[in-house]
Design goal:
Number of helices: 12
Number of strands: 19
Bound molecules: pyridoxal-5'-phosphate
Strand content: 15-25%
Shape: elongated
Helix content: 25-40%
Length: 369
């Protein structure tokens, strides 16, 4: 890729391809693969990522909200798209754009059945979400009877899948809890099939589930973070490649003496002579204030430079004392090193939050061979 001349988020579609096959090869050949592309494909670019996954042969895609699905349809995505958290106000759009809703409550089901009828649909695909312990969204076991009554003879919709979500798939200390979720999910499936009179396909695992609970892959898995290069585990991370790298350049360099300060509220005061570089990105670009005041570092010519003082809206300042550099030189905020995971961890957060927070102001640049 050419030289960086401003703040850019580089999106490596070859890394995406590598990660896709790494994950897919851990599954049974017949298991469907759903690529999660919500939140701009974890802060990268939903359209380019979805189209690439479609080319690679992904079976399903998922977004959180209807508008995200509409953007994918506008971009030419033809694969089935599961909307994980649709809002009933958008059901008309959802149906006209052939998006498939997760249905997780009685109220949602009633509202959707009305919408499907109004649009004169036959066997419109819906996905039944059950709560098996995360206590976020989902029907409970006591709703199965009701679901059977509502859906068994309904001609407008068809429950194509049954799914749930694990609460702690990345944490093996929670193994007994997760096994409990898996067995609850199996029990729900058996009863639901008998009440419906047909058998929706099943899916439960997210990325860490694929890694830690391969026996529970059922007919499909749903992977997000793994596609983008993180497995919530060092051994897996070593085999994956980060898709997104945030890079920028040095805008200006200042030499400051002992007692002089840097940035708003004079949050950094130099104890000795030091060299400070200003970078053109800040909290409006997704580098939150939490990363300031020495918590995280960036890489300048392969050397660590800590963020000093408060993160501003459009700028951060880094300490480049002892690092040979000049205005215009490239700086890596995160990418291969430090990884987004490592950068986030220093500020007590996770790669998911850092990646999805990179704002739309940052230009995206694609690598695809
Ligand atoms: C976001 C999400 C996923 C993806 O999880 P990862 O840990 O990123 O693989 C899977 N399923 C549901 C329901 C989600 O909301």
């Amino acid at each position: 890729m050419g030289k960086v001349q401003e703040t850019v988020l580089e999106i490596d579609l070859d890394a995406l391809e590598h990660n896709y096959w790494f994950l897919r090869n851990r599954l049974q050949p017949t298991t469907y693969f759903l690529g999660v592309v919500k939140a701009f494909a974890y802060g990268s670019d939903a359209e380019r990522i979805a189209l690439k996954l479609q080319d690679l042969g992904v079976d399903y895609l998922a977004v959180a909200y209807v508008q995200e699905g509409v953007a994918l349809r506008d971009a030419g995505v033809t694969k089935p798209i599961l909307v994980l958290h649709p809002q009933s106000v958008n059901f008309d759009t959802l149906i006209t754009r052939c998006l498939e809703p997760s249905i997780y409550s009685r109220h949602m089901l009633t509202t959707f059945l009305d919408a499907a009828k109004k649009h004169d649909q036959r066997n419109y695909p819906i996905h039944l979400k059950f709560n098996t312990g995360l206590n976020r969204l989902g029907f409970l076991e006591k709703d199965i009877e009701y679901l059977g009554e509502q859906l068994k003879t309904n001609k407008n919709v068809r429950a194509v899948s049954l799914f749930s979500h694990l609460a702690a798939s990345e944490d093996l200390r929670e193994l007994p809890f997760t096994k409990g979720q898996i067995s609850t999910f199996k029990r729900i499936g058996t009863v639901l099939d008998s009440k419906l009179g047909y058998s929706p396909f099943r899916h439960l695992l997210n990325t860490s589930g694929i890694i830690n609970y391969p026996d529970a892959q059922f007919q499909m898995v749903r992977s997000g973070i793994g596609l983008y290069g993180f497995g919530n585990e060092a051994q897996v991370d070593a085999r994956l490649r980060p898709v997104a790298s945030l890079k920028t350049i040095i805008s200006q360099i200042h030499q400051i003496g002992p007692g002089e300060s840097v940035g708003y509220n004079r949050a950094f005061v130099a104890a000795e002579r030091c060299t400070i570089a200003t970078l053109p990105l800040g909290h409006a670009d997704g580098i939150g204030r939490i990363y300031g005041n020495g918590s995280s570092y960036v890489l300048v010519h392969d050397q660590k430079a800590f963020i000093v003082g408060n993160v501003c809206m459009d700028m951060i300042m880094i300490n480049v004392t002892g690092i040979e550099c000049k205005e215009g030189d490239e700086v890596t905020i995160f990418g291969k090193n430090p990884t987004a995971e490592a950068f986030a961890a220093r500020a007590n957060t996770i790669s998911y939050e850092l990646l999805t927070g990179i704002s739309q102001r940052v230009k995206r640049r694609f690598l695809d061979n």
